[in-house]
Amino acid sequence: MPELTKEIADAHPTPTAEPILEVRGLVKHFPLTQGILFKKQIGAVKAVDGVDFDLGAGETLGIVGESGCGKSTVAKLLVNLEQPTAGEIRYKGEDITKLSGRALKAVRRNIQMVFQDPYTSLNPRMTVGDIIGEPYEIHPEVAPKGSRRQKVQELLDVVGLNPEYINRYPHQFSGGQRQRIGIARGLALRPEIIVADEPVSALDVSVQAQVVNLLEKLQDEFGLSYVFIAHDLSIVRHISDRVGVMYLGRLVEIGSDREIYDHPTHPYTQALLSAVPVPDPDARLHRERIILSGDVPSPANPPSGCRFRTRCWKAQERCELEVPELAVPAVFRLEGGPTAHPSACHFAEEKQVVPESDES
Amino acid sequence: MLLEVRDLQVEFRTRDGVAKAVNGVTYEVDAGETLAVLGESGSGKSVTAQAIMGILDMPPGKITGGEILFQGKDLLKMKEDERRKVRGAEMAMIFQDALSSLNPVLSVGDQLGEMFIVHRGMSKKDARAKSIELMDRVRIPAAKERVSQYPHQFSGGMRQRIMIAMALALEPALIIADEPTTALDVTVQAQVMDLLAELQRELNMGLILITHDLGVVADVADKIAVMYAGRIVERAPVHDIYKAPAHPYTKGLLESIPRLDQKGQELYAIKGLPPNLMAIPPGCAFNPRCPRAQDVCRTDVPPLAQVSEDRQSACHFWKETLRDA
Q: Taking every annotated instance into account, which residue ranges of this chain make up the domain ABC transporter (chain B) (predicted)?
């Protein structure tokens, strides 16, 4: 879809001209099999089914969506923990899904991940020093053996932990501190891109803000690009330059934070935003909430046409027959302004759902 | 008053020492009213609820003081068989994780029907009919067909609605919902909270909503009790607290919510970590993290001071906090 990409690029001049990561037509199907000796494929869970986006250098792209929408699978594909079924992930112009061996190893150094659950993503039998230093075993060129301990202590300092804790074990730390250890491990190889999958969801409210601040500080310090995946829409808005909304394996809307939050044009985005409780009791009265009926359909058997149509209040026959493309809707294309951003809906129209969003 | 908790104290005796999970909690709920109990993990909000329901693991837990008056009677002085009659019929609880709270080897209908068979002495057939009625009430489509299905055949939101159905089965006077929507997606959370609020209105129940989500609280609560390290630090009607918090901890929580006008700036963060319950700091438990802490905070436990008629704050400097808000 070269035309489409051009359109997106035109509508969104990213801070730097060249995107550091380009994702095109990314697909991941997990086969469903039957039988023991002769495994027969009877279907597939279409976890990710055609996702396109760009990530600019130094930019934060937020990806939001509900459980099962494929956002975590996208994260795993980006860091090569899963092999895509189809599509390309271009890092500085080079398709990394085709790489192997030494070339792949070199690229993986530059794309690191921070996981959701700081309790299960750290090996309880390794010391903090071993956990953070482990990437150096795989990429010894980054830090020769003699300097590793010092490097690890520097990293601990960078993420706000006492460097003397190097010989402690994960259970001696609180959740927020463990997440800092996970972040330090992600930083060890000085990557350019960090994919953070729900990095603050498991943390207490008062600690979440600390970790979000840390991530922002590190971005400025090291010039990192983030793919920030979360379901907490207010935190995503705070940290992201651009936001993509996923539903059932596809991006349904993508744009700058203001375009998505203040001028959403896709009905799912509108429903999602309106469902978020607002921490203001006065908003109870003058707030319109869109309550969706039903549950997310199974990704093994997604609806034809638009995947959201089974829960959409606007759905018509066309939605059943025709898959809406992720492109700037024709009605907004000429008009320009904040509504002119890619939205995969046949009947896209603007609806303000977040109260008190002043335009100043 | 439907429920009054007075100066409740709960501790856990463990190998490593005594953890004081609840240190003198006082709150009340009336019929038709929603009280939100707000706090982080370890603040004692769930332990208080378990003590009210009488499902606290004892040992290691031990209720060392206080009283829990339910419709005027002290639950803590009741015998276990009296208490059992209250539990389920008069007060019921909705748990956070519906999948692990439902029995995976019994059909949903069996689990709902059990309430009627045990408490109301109904026949199996009548109980089944009642179960279908309940599932209809919590808007589970095709209730008649689905009543004999097992929990794993339902989605997360539906399982939570079944938990609600179970809690409502005997039309209790009080419902305690412990993080009822934390495990759910936002669009499903909105459905479930709406349903809960509607049924509460219909049956004029008292509702204690335990949560850490300031957004959910603002949406449904009438009044709030904020807990920290086993104590109530602030109690107030919902509008007052969001407008002007009278305790630095509440203020910190509200300020750490990302706001539009702060984009690109650092988020306000409460420094430090919640205290270890085996070594709660002397004086005010919040003092090591408090921007307002003075010497008096490190020595004297602040009493729950009356801010206004229906509002209290456990801070030595609540006047100053309120003024700056």
A: 5-254
Q: What is the per-residue pLDDT for B118?
A: 86
Chain B segment 43-102 residues within 8 A of A by beta carbon are: none
Q: Check A283 against B269: CB less than 8 A apart.
A: no
Give the per-residue pLDDT at B54.
Answer: 87
Chain B residue whose CA is closest to A220:
B264
Same domain, B55 and B101: no
The strands making up B3-14's β-sheet, listed across from edge to edge, are: B17-29, B3-14, B61-70, B73-74
Tens-place pLDDT, residues A189-240: 999 999 999 888 877 777 888 888 889 999 999 899 999 998 888 889 999 9
| Minimum-distance CB partner of A282 among B189, B239, B267 | B239
Answer yes or no: do A295 and B238 touch at CB < 8 A: no
CB atoms within 10 A of CB B13: 12
Q: Does A358 touch chain B (CB under 8 A)?
A: yes
Subunit contact B270:A283, Cβ cutoff 8 A: no
Q: Does B39 touch chain A (CB under 8 A)?
A: no
Q: Which of B134, B155, B170 is the last residue of a domain?
A: B170
Sorted by sequence, the CB contacts under 8 Å of residue A35 that are 6+ apart come out as none
Both B186 and B198 in one domain: the answer is yes
Listing from the earlier edge strand, what are the strands of the sheet with A193-197? A111-114, A193-197, A225-229, A60-64, A242-247, A250-256
Residue B294 lies in a domain: no
Rounded distance between C-alpha atoms, residue A344 and residue A323, angstroms: 8
Whether residue B234 sits in one domain with residue B129: no
Tens of pLDDT, residue by residue over B184-210, are: 778 778 888 888 888 888 889 999 999
The domains located in chain A, with CATH, are 2-333 (3.40.50.300)
**B160 in the same domain as B224:** no
A272 part of contact set with chain B, CB < 8 Å = yes
Q: Is residue B57 part of a domain?
A: yes
Measured distance CA(A166)–CA(A128) in Å, rounded:
5
Largest Cα separation within chain B, whole Å, is: 67
Q: Note whether B187 contacts A205, CB cutoff 8 Å.
A: no
Query: Which H helix or E strand runs over B21?
Result: strand B17-29
pTM comes to 0.82
Asked if residue B2 and residue B58 are part of one domain, the reply reads: yes
Domain annotation covers residue B14: yes
Is the minimum CB–CB distance between A27 and chain B shorter than 8 Å?
Answer: no
Enclosing domain of residue B48: 1-90+172-282+299-325
Number of domains in chain B: 2
Residue A354 banded pLDDT, cuts 50, 70, 90: low
Q: Are B104 and B176 contained in the same domain?
A: no
- Sorting pLDDT into bands at 50, 70 and 90, what band is A243? very high
CATH number of the domain that B188 lies in? 3.40.50.300
Cβ-based burial of A217 (10 A; exposed 0-12, middle 13-18, buried ≥19): middle
For residue A204 the two structure tokens come to 């207490």
Helix (H, G, I), strand (E, B) or coil at A180: helix
- Could you report the per-residue pLDDT of A1-30, keeping only the tens digit for each? 444 444 444 444 444 457 899 999 999 999
**One domain, residues B150 and B101:** yes
CB B217 within 8 A of CB B238: yes
A216 touches chain B (CB under 8 A): yes
Query: What is the CB neighbour count within 10 angstroms for residue A185?
Result: 24
Q: Is residue B109 part of a domain?
A: yes
* Domain stops at, among B170, B188, B219: B170
B110 with B243, same domain: the answer is no
Q: What is the mean pLDDT of residues A241-255?
A: 93
